[in-house]
Amino acid sequence: MKRAIVFSTMLRTLLGCAMFAMGGLALAQQGGAAPPVAVERVGVTETLLGILSYARWPNESSPLRVCIAGRSTHADPWLKNGLAALAQRPIVVQALAPNSDAPIAAQCDALYIGSLDDATSRRIFSTVVGYPVLTVSERVPPCAAGAMVCLDANNPSGVQFEVNLDAVARSGVRVNPQVLRLGRPSGKIAP
Fold it and tell me: 0.85 exceeded by the pTM?
């Protein structure tokens, strides 16, 4: 019974986020106050928070450390304003230093990857393989390179995501299977 209530609550939350994002998109398309980029940004933020809230790390740190690598119009406001806390767990957002020698796994519980060149992306992914770092990319191709979750914010239906199940399994981060089912397996998002 408790499992059904938890799943029902999770589904309601995710559907509420999707309806919020779609409602904002409709408002923007009708000439309302919200510009499409702002609606897209809200959709990406809500999707990221949803994924983070259903992920469990082997050693839960408080606060949850979210690092940003590369340039991103979605993540820039997070660096300035932060992200909302998850169930009494605060979130600290920081930019990842581009040429830092410090291990990413020692700095970050989650890594959001914006625009990076392929060599930098490969270097970053190679340093987190086998460590409990949830990697989320705002572009689809990095899922093949090792990102765990790749967002497709440009989809007319709203923010969708692809899941690299191999990367999730290797990371040690447990993501609720219901959330994994909401995402598409790696390579399934249409161009």
Answer: no
